[in-house]
Task: structure prediction
Amino acid sequence: MTLLRLISGNKFPPPSFPINHTTPNNSLKSHFRFLNYCPKSRTPICCISNCDQKTQSFDEMDKDSKWVSIESDVDEEYARELEVAVKAVHVACLLCQKVQERLVFDGDGENVQSKDDNSPVTIADWSVQATVSWILSQAFGTENVSIVAEEDIESLSKTDATSILSSVVKTVNDSLSSASRFGIKPPVTNLETTQVLEAISRCNSNGGPTGRFWVLDPVDGTLGFVRGDQYAIALALVENGEVVLGVLGCPNYPMNKEWLNYQNGYRRILSRLAKPDSASWDGNGCVLYAKRGSKKAWMQPLLSGDNSVISARPIKVSAIDNPVLATFCEPVEKANSSHLFTQGLAHSVGLRNQPLRVYSMVKYAAIARGDAEIFMKFARAGYKEKIWDHAAGVVIIEEAGGIVTDAGGRRLDFSKGVYLQGLDRGIIACAGASLHEKIMSAVDASWNSSSL
Ligand SMILES: Nc1ncnc2c1ncn2[C@@H]1O[C@H](COP(=O)(O)O)[C@@H](OP(=O)(O)O)[C@H]1O
Ligand SMILES: [Mg+2]
Result:
């Protein structure tokens, strides 16, 4: 591993800069390789374009790449894992954007399949799983990487799935061949079909209480994805049952929170009106990440077009604790969480705003960014929540200052395998303790009379 070359002191942000670990004092060890800061937004800027003052990347990463990012100390625990994970999620976001464009605009419906539970799965789900699995294996060695992830290759390996499989292989190779812009060294030659299938099927860990494993939801909210709406790519690292890193890619969730309100295919509507400015921080999606215990969470814009500059901003949960002013999020699909029950809770707690119904873990992102105050999910009795639907979001909200528990006030338990075992009634994530307590009391008061 190589350490960055130091960049001259006057290029660092001024003392008032909000990220204190990137001040000149500790900049020697900083792995956030500043090249400058933006005078307008006062955010750190890292140059990805060809630049004399470029810094070096990890040995196994592409030597020609200028991608630089991630504010953490190289000696810090999980610094390297975080860097690789963020890069992998950026690559996955771009992959998904391309596939979603094709699905939504070109009506590429052939590349959507139905799973046994009737939920959709697309070439993006398999392609992201293969791509992230390959990137993690390259970075840490296949023998050191254990992944719990949503997809398997059963339906993909069937004889009638040959055209889907070849689309997946092409999508993975296209995505990896352009991954060098993120500092990821592409494969020397295109991956063969067997290698792609192997990368997907390697993600067959069952998790558990000991050791280290990654948790991946390649496309969370696949229904939102196929509808041209919100979805997320979620990658977390769990060690001895505790989520230690979380990275959440939200390709359709730009900086401006109002965009969340464009439900039912806002991107489609928007793109018809005017193509979003691809280089704009405001018009593009974001990647959020956090490391357990750092008390900090971060957001980067998604790269697109020829954009050569990237910056990260610290994010914090909302300071609103008055229910009258608070907004709660919940799944779009009634089948995934009872809207009737949360409506009753909202009424008894005094929430007045309309619920923000959003697909996927973008809801966790909304709480962590301070765009909403409460996320509630009350699935039907018997539904078993999977760890990949929550792991990354939980650590990001907690490090951004929020709280995530079940309805009994217990932290979610990621140590029991693929499912969140022992979950009490539902999931409640809040910006602060006061709202959280009010919701929990309201659940206690109304649970027995509910049909859940
Ligand atoms: N009956 C059900 N009850 C609760 N959650 C469900 C469900 N069926 C599927 N889900 C989960 O809800 C996720 C979508 O979240 P949301 O409803 O918040 O958009 C799905 O993720 P995938 O789309 O990755 O399968 C799936 O894991
Ligand atoms: Mg999911």
